[in-house]
Amino acid sequence: MFKRGCGLEFLLVLCGLELSWSCPRHCICYTAPSTVSCQAHNFLSVPEGIPPHSERIFLQNNKIHRLLRGHFSPTTVTLWIYSNNITYIEPSTFQGFTLLEELDLGDNRYLRSLAAETFHGLGRLHALHLYRCGLSALPSNIFQGLRNLQYLYLQDNNLEFLQDDIFIDLHNLSHLFLHGNRLWSLHQNTFRGLGALDRLLLHHNQLQWIDRMAFHDLRRLTTLYLFNNSLSELAGECLAVLPALEYLRLNDNPWECDCKALSLWDWLKRFRGSTSAVGCVAPPKLAGEDLKQLRKEDFPNCSGSESLHQSKTNSWAGTDKVSLKKEPHPPAQPPYPHHPHHNEQYPSPPSPLPQPPPSVDGVQEESGRFPSTIAPPQRPGRPRNCTRQRVRGSKGKGPNEVHTLKEMSDKEYSSQDFTDGGKYEHTSPDGSPPRRKHKCTPRTSVRPPSGVQQATNWGNTQHPHRFLYSILGVLVSLSSERILR
């Protein structure tokens, strides 16, 4: 017979609670998966006593100042430390964390700088949150070795410049959020290596110049946001290297609709995706007009072939010292990892851009937050994207964890530009519907074992009476044996 104490312990274990004397004070610890929840307790430092084999650690909404080596265990899979006061991260804090899949350091406004080796060795990391951290620069090799990273959140920082090849190791990155920074130029090799990128958000920056070959590696890019910048011109060849592009936002830039705009005008006429208005501010006679709606007659004294040739010549002159050798194609994306926690619930993914819904299944979308390790369901007949946007709602915390997700005022796509009632066109300039591009072959559904499949098919046949006949045959044979005995 169990003693009363043992029975209580057994009952708590069945309920998913971990009876551990090492659980930090004011925190909640439980199993399946092993989790430590310490959010919103005004901790000034990482609390002591975190169980050494914890898989998920939630420390958001505290006042933690420093992250040092030894604060966490290499068994950690998910680590949330957003909305704290972190000013320093020791470079070896995450050394040896080979199981870490999601790291959220966002909304630490005084972090401002990171050592180049901070994230080295995190080979399984697939989501890295560094939004609103006050970052003004990034070391050139800070993302080295993060080959499984799929989501990178760098929005709402103070970044003015991106090093060449800073993303070159991110072969599987699908979403890159850079909006709300101070970027003023994009160079030829800024995005080199991002062969799997699906969405690139660059709105609300200070972009004045984009190299003609800045997007040359982005063969799978479907969504590009460049609105609310300082662009006065953009070569059509810059967008012509994006064969999968479907959604483009160029509004709220000071476009000069003279001969320099001829190649962009020509490309927009042929584009079959969804585009925003491209409002002209010059020359004066075309101010307020939409570049897409202009006619060839609106470009007097401009020769189409001469304009394109001249712009190409200028581009090569500005990049004569940059190697233009063709890069090898990146490896195909691996399938989404199997989610280890079947009891976790996630909302459905949002509808495709350009009009992201304000909420999904009643759950408000947060600023670039997606579930960590779950594959989004594929819509029937829509195999166009290998990677789909995922929305983070509840992370499926345990029954005893009091967890409140932070409300962010600036949502990932929050802008009046998305709700301006018709500024975003869903047809091409010539009136034809947007063309859907089937870039990826649909994933083959996983079939059950052959025995199960066989039984299922047999049970669904149009002759269920065969099953009855077989049973009757067995009964008759048994009865015959008895009679003969």
TrEMBL record:
<feature type="compositionally biased region" description="Basic residues">
    <location>
        <begin position="381"/>
        <end position="395"/>
    </location>
</feature>
<dbReference type="InterPro" id="IPR003591">
    <property type="entry name" value="Leu-rich_rpt_typical-subtyp"/>
</dbReference>
<keyword id="KW-1003">Cell membrane</keyword>
<keyword id="KW-0449">Lipoprotein</keyword>
<feature type="compositionally biased region" description="Polar residues">
    <location>
        <begin position="451"/>
        <end position="460"/>
    </location>
</feature>
<protein>
    <submittedName>
        <fullName>Reticulon-4 receptor-like 1b</fullName>
    </submittedName>
</protein>
<dbReference type="InterPro" id="IPR032675">
    <property type="entry name" value="LRR_dom_sf"/>
</dbReference>
<dbReference type="Pfam" id="PF13855">
    <property type="entry name" value="LRR_8"/>
</dbReference>
<keyword id="KW-0966">Cell projection</keyword>
<comment type="similarity">
    <text>Belongs to the Nogo receptor family.</text>
</comment>
<dbReference type="GO" id="GO:0098552">
    <property type="term" value="C:side of membrane"/>
</dbReference>
<feature type="region of interest" description="Disordered">
    <location>
        <begin position="298"/>
        <end position="460"/>
    </location>
</feature>
<keyword id="KW-0472">Membrane</keyword>
<feature type="domain" description="LRRCT">
    <location>
        <begin position="253"/>
        <end position="303"/>
    </location>
</feature>
<feature type="compositionally biased region" description="Basic and acidic residues">
    <location>
        <begin position="398"/>
        <end position="428"/>
    </location>
</feature>
<keyword id="KW-0732">Signal</keyword>
<dbReference type="InterPro" id="IPR000483">
    <property type="entry name" value="Cys-rich_flank_reg_C"/>
</dbReference>
<dbReference type="GO" id="GO:0043204">
    <property type="term" value="C:perikaryon"/>
</dbReference>
<dbReference type="InterPro" id="IPR001611">
    <property type="entry name" value="Leu-rich_rpt"/>
</dbReference>
<keyword id="KW-0675">Receptor</keyword>
<dbReference type="InterPro" id="IPR050541">
    <property type="entry name" value="LRR_TM_domain-containing"/>
</dbReference>
<keyword id="KW-0433">Leucine-rich repeat</keyword>
<dbReference type="GO" id="GO:0045121">
    <property type="term" value="C:membrane raft"/>
</dbReference>
<keyword id="KW-0325">Glycoprotein</keyword>
<feature type="compositionally biased region" description="Polar residues">
    <location>
        <begin position="302"/>
        <end position="317"/>
    </location>
</feature>
<dbReference type="GO" id="GO:0042995">
    <property type="term" value="C:cell projection"/>
</dbReference>
<feature type="compositionally biased region" description="Pro residues">
    <location>
        <begin position="347"/>
        <end position="359"/>
    </location>
</feature>
<feature type="signal peptide">
    <location>
        <begin position="1"/>
        <end position="22"/>
    </location>
</feature>
<keyword id="KW-0677">Repeat</keyword>
<dbReference type="GO" id="GO:0005886">
    <property type="term" value="C:plasma membrane"/>
</dbReference>
